[in-house]
Write a structure and sequence with these properties.
Elements: H1 2-20, H2 25-42, H3 47-60, H4 66-82, H5 86-102, H6 106-123, H7 126-142, H8 146-163, H9 166-182, H10 186-203, H11 206-222, H12 226-243, H13 246-262, H14 266-280, H15 286-302, H16 306-323, H17 326-389, H18 394-478, H19 484-515, E1 523-527, H20 528-545, E2 549-552, E3 559-563, H21 564-580, E4 587-594, E5 598-605, H22 612-620, H23 639-649, E6 654-659, E7 663-671
Parallel strand pairs: 2-4
Antiparallel strand pairs: 1-3, 4-5, 5-7, 6-7
Helix pairs in contact: 1-14, 2-3, 3-4, 4-5, 5-6, 5-7, 6-7, 6-17, 7-8, 7-9, 8-9, 9-10, 9-11, 10-11, 11-12, 11-13, 12-13, 13-14, 13-15, 14-15, 15-16, 18-19, 19-23, 20-21, 21-23
């Protein structure tokens, strides 16, 4: 009966997911284009280059079609063995282990990992050795054997640190974060994940960056910082969608479901959990299925649908039983012990073979010396006979010898040309690969900018225009009925909404320019007191309407080196922000001081203030979630991002000082004129 219910459940989920997967069409097309290019290249290359192309095709399929990934990986391994390419063999064995891990076949995965490790140790491939140690630690972590997981990952860390291998270090710190997170050492986990993220950003590893965002979000969620976790989940989801990574997307939807449950949005949670379960189906990752099922049980029980809640409780229990089955752990233990036993046997075999080889070498040397003497004597006799016999034809023999010499030289030249062509083909393949990666990164950044622009235009610009149209229509229909005071008041409101909307639009355009690297900086000598005075006059009516005192301290005249438009944009955003979060009757003070080689400008308010975590997020994030002001004023969340970017381009520094309930101070520096 349980199986029948499961069939019906997945039938309806399949209908739901048909619509939810529409986002992946573009990213799938891009990935398929890469695979098609590699497939065409496969028909034109041979030997080691062919193995490299097969391996890359296999890797491209790893998160979209695991069956094809395994098939191409095995073909690559066979070719590498035929060509005796030891490095490629060890590398491909590790990748095959990753495919089996994704399918949930931990025993097969560990078998591949140990074979790859054995070959890497024999050939002294230190990078691959570290990678396999890390992969083995991953399996132990998934099985909950955290002490052995740490043992293997620390071996990997030691090797990669000595090599300064940033690629491997990015994955090793990621794995340490997972182990610490599963061991409830959240602070250590957060430190490890951030180190991993730093390396992955340097290397532009898109999928790795998404995984780091996901796990940092999980840590924030565990610590109760739910809104912070949502920011990181959404960043991760955007990248996973671009990369068409179904496993990553499924994990994010599961996390979003848990977030919705925490926020008591149970219908939203149900939708996200169902998306996660259908996406993860076929990848053999039972933990995600179990977590999603437990989340659905909670959602349905809160909505009073207890039959469905009971169904998913049974579903989760069955998966949990399969995960905790001791067969996996027993199999892994046997593999580990067998591996250690094989190493000891092979060491003994090597010692025995070395002794036999030494003895055989001595006998062989003696036989060789005797044979050389015999052959040398015979050659001397034959040579003397040949010299006597062919003495008269010595000129003809000399010519034949010269001809053979020329033929050998031509053959060497041909081999040199062939080697040059092989190197040229290899360089061309690497150039194509780099070009594809660069195009992929540029497209990813442009898509992110486009999505953010459309999001702000759709949500933040629509509302003020609706207000303006509403007020103007009211005046139009009631112009004869309304008093002058009413019309003046509405006109002031229209004017205020228009000014705010213009500010949003200017911020939006400035942010778009910074993201597409179209900002032109034109530095000049500028009077700081003039810039501050003009902005004070601009915002004085707005501050007065909110009963906020806006003024600046009397300062001596001095000049700074800056771009006038950028400087006005920064001061305008910071004053507007302070007004937004000030309470009626509050005070905002703008001041500027000159030092030996720089100026410091500050905007200080006594408004609602903010905590250290929010300040940290504002300073490290590219885009921040905007909160409502004290009069429910709206924003886009990009104002402070623009301030940071512009001050950086003007060779200054930007920082925030704040305390909840006591207000905030925004400071930045500029070079003196």
């Amino acid at each position: 009966m349980f199986k029948n219910k499961g069939i019906i459940f997945y039938f309806f989920l399949l209908i739901t997911i048909t619509f939810s997967l529409s986002f992946s069409i573009n990213s799938y097309s891009q990935k398929q284009t890469t695979i098609d290019s590699l497939s065409k290249l496969l028909n034109t290359v041979k030997d080691s280059t062919r193995v490299a192309v097969l391996k890359q095709i296999s890797w491209e399929y790893r998160n979209s079609d695991t069956t094809k990934a395994v098939s191409f990986g095995k073909t690559a391994l066979k070719n590498a063995i035929d060509k005796n390419l030891k490095f490629e063999q060890a590398d491909i064995l590790g990748r095959l282990g990753i495919y089996q891990r994704n399918l949930g076949n931990f025993s097969k995965a560990m078998d591949f990992y140990f074979k790859g490790l054995d070959l890497a140790e024999k050939c002294n491939f230190l990078k691959l050795e570290a990678l396999e140690y890390n992969n083995i630690g991953d399996i132990y972590n998934r099985l909950g054997v955290y002490d052995q997981a740490l043992e293997y990952v620390n071996k990997a860390l030691k090797i990669s640190t000595q090599l300064n291998d940033k690629y491997n270090l990015s994955y090793i710190y990621h794995m340490l974060g997972l182990i610490y997170m599963n061991s409830s050492e959240d602070d250590s986990a957060l430190v490890s994940f951030r180190k991993s993220l730093e390396y992955r950003k340097q290397l532009k590893l898109k999928t790795g960056i998404a995984s780091s965002y996901l796990n940092i979000g999980l840590i924030h969620f565990k610590k109760g910082s739910y809104d912070s976790s949502l920011i990181y989940y959404n960043r991760s989801l955007a990248i996973f969608k671009l990369m068409n990574d179904y496993v990553g997307i499924a994990n994010i939807y599961k996390c979003l479901g848990e977030y919705d449950n925490q926020k008591k949005d149970y219908n939203g949670a149900i939708e996200n959990f169902k998306k996660s379960m259908i996406l993860i189906k076929g990848f053999g990752i039972p933990q995600v299925n179990k977590d999603a099922a437990e989340g659905l049980k909670l959602s349905y029980s809160k909505l009073g649908e207890f039959k469905k809640a009971l169904y998913f409780q049974e579903f989760a229990t069955n998966i949990k039983d399969s995960i905790t089955n001791n067969i996996y752990i027993q199999k892994i233990t046997r593999l580990t012990e067998n591996y250690k036993y094989e190493i000891k046997n092979k060491e003994q075999e090597i010692i025995t073979k070395q002794k036999e080889e030494i003895l055989n070498e001595r006998i062989s040397n003696q036989r060789t010396q005797l044979n050389i003497l015999i052959v040398g004597f015979l050659l001397m006799v034959v040579l003397i006979g040949i010299i006597v016999f062919f003495y008269r034809d010595k000129n003809q023999a000399y010519k034949a010898l010269n001809l053979k010499t020329k033929e050998i030289a031509e053959l060497n030249t041909g081999l040199t040309i062939a080697n040059t062509e092989i190197k040229s083909q290899k360089e061309e393949i690497e150039a194509q690969r780099d070009a594809l990666q660069k195009q992929s990164d540029n497209l990813s950044n442009l898509n992110f900018t486009k999505d953010k622009l459309f999001s702000i235009i759709g949500h933040d610009l629509r509302s003020p225009f609706t207000s303006i149209i509403g007020f103007s229509n009211y005046i139009k229909e009631n112009v004869n009925k309304s008093s002058i005071d009413e019309i003046v008041e509405m006109n002031e409101q229209i004017n205020e909404v228009g000014i705010n909307t213009l500010g949003i639009l200017e911020n939006l355009l400035n942010w778009a320019k910074t993201q597409t690297h179209q900002v032109n900086v034109s530095k000049e000598k500028i009077s700081i007191i003039t810039v501050i005075s003009e902005n004070i006059k601009t915002f004085f009516p707005h501050a007065n309407n909110k009963r906020v005192k806006l003024h600046y301290e009397s300062i001596d005249e001095f000049y700074v080196i800056a771009d006038a438009n950028m400087l006005n944009t920064v001061i305008r955003n910071l004053i507007s922000n302070s007004i937004k979060y000030s309470n009626p009757g509050g005070e905002i003070k703008v001041s500027a001081k000159s030092f030996i080689d720089h100026a410091e400008i500050s905007i200080q308010d006594n408004g609602i203030g903010m905590g250290k975590e929010l300040i940290s997020n504002l300073l490290i994030s590219d885009i921040n979630h905007s909160t409502l002001g004290t009069f429910n004023e709206k924003g886009t969340g990009i104002g402070l991002t623009i301030c940071k970017e512009f001050i950086k381009k003007l060779d200054g520094e930007f920082w925030i000082e704040s305390e909840i309930g006591k207000g905030s101070t925004f400071r930045f520096t500029l070079p003196l004129g």
